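Recall from the previous chapter that SMILES is a line notation for molecules. Here it describes flavin-adenine dinucleotide.
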Amino acid sequence: MDFHVTYSESQQRFRAEVAQWLADVVPSELLGSNEHFENRDAYELRRDLGRSLGARGWLYPMAPPEYGGGGLDLDAALVVAEELRRLGLGLPPYYDSGGVLGSASILHWGTDEQKAELLPPIYRGEQRTWQLLTEPSAGSDVAAVATTAVRDGDDYLISGQKSFIGSLHGADAHWALVRTGPAEDRHHNLSWFMIDGSSAGITITPQHLLGGIDKNTIFLDEVRVPAGRLVGGENKGWQVAFTHLDHEHGLRSDRFLGQELHRAWERIVEGIADPASGVSTDDPVVVDLLAKIYVKKETVRLLGKRNYWLAMENRPRTYEGPQGYYLEKKTTQWLASALLELFGGAATANVFAGDAGAALVEQQALGAMAMHGGGTGEIQKLIMSRALRLGKPATSASAPE
Ligand SMILES: Cc1cc2nc3c(=O)[nH]c(=O)nc-3n(C[C@H](O)[C@H](O)[C@H](O)COP(=O)(O)OP(=O)(O)OC[C@H]3O[C@@H](n4cnc5c(N)ncnc54)[C@H](O)[C@@H]3O)c2cc1C
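With both inputs in hand, we obtain:
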């Protein structure tokens, strides 16, 4: 069987065009940099790059051109993403995962007016958006959110608290899942709002996680939101949320690049090249372990690529997204012990200092523990079993219960 991927002549021409354009516009400071740990200057450079990609239609290559997307086909979108990955960059960018996920819901559930108003700033890279789902008592069980929206004339007033939100350097907009109906009407009491980030009543406080990950707690105190920013209708928020949750559970466009594990792999290769590591590739045990790491990271990447294809081509799917996401979470945890086995004590020494200043194995282990964004491993298993309707009569099921 031939696994070699071939590209048509026009795809190769397009790849050369993208590569040249990126060589011209990507600032050297961003090459291979890690967006999780960047300072304000690097973040602003990344935003500028996002705007340049957006103006070219390559930030959201497959999104409808009438709303600012590129209107390209899947093969072309993959070429753009792969060329960005070659430079250590993601597409659409990590810094705007809220935009990636929120725009999918707006495109599906928004009115024509809402699409025309809300999508272009996201697709053109002019706006960064954070997603406001989790609350202190609503994480895995996100339908239990207690933040409320109360109608007040032509507006809603939103009050409550959201946690584990965003990253560094603020956001221009937020979308939020909030309660608009009685608590007992579970799944039928939620609404989905787009909120202007500069609205009065929003307080953001930093929340530092294991592994040097920066998140925020956001307090909303009677934040006034026009009724026109309610997407999908009052008490219909669970359906709207299901669209982006489906994407977040392993179908997200940035997942297929397998960027995080690839980054870890590159640091392993660098570490081995360092004589201080004392690791020799003449040792068959080392070769065996390296092969295992490589195969696992590639399996995660290829499942991600399959899932992206399923989502973008709108193919039927059941367990595939959470399957890939689950494997990524588990591989990330496994890698911490594999690093210790590979490098021994040197893995804990500063010679392998990572982006957050921690030793390689420490950062891998702590980062893996904090990898419950988008739902924990248990929740991915739960979604898979529900999607496969384990214990229930077989049917194609990817809708909420
Ligand atoms: C890096 C990171 C980024 C994040 N980004 C965002 C963001 O941008 N926006 C946002 O809104 N949220 C975000 N989150 C929050 C994330 O979605 C939640 O942390 C996650 O859903 C788990 O919720 P929880 O922390 O409240 O844990 P809990 O729900 O309290 O779970 C605690 C434990 O119980 C287990 N558990 C819970 N229910 C079940 C069940 N039914 N069956 C089996 N086991 C179960 C869980 O697996 C877990 O081990 C982020 C979190 C992290 C760590």
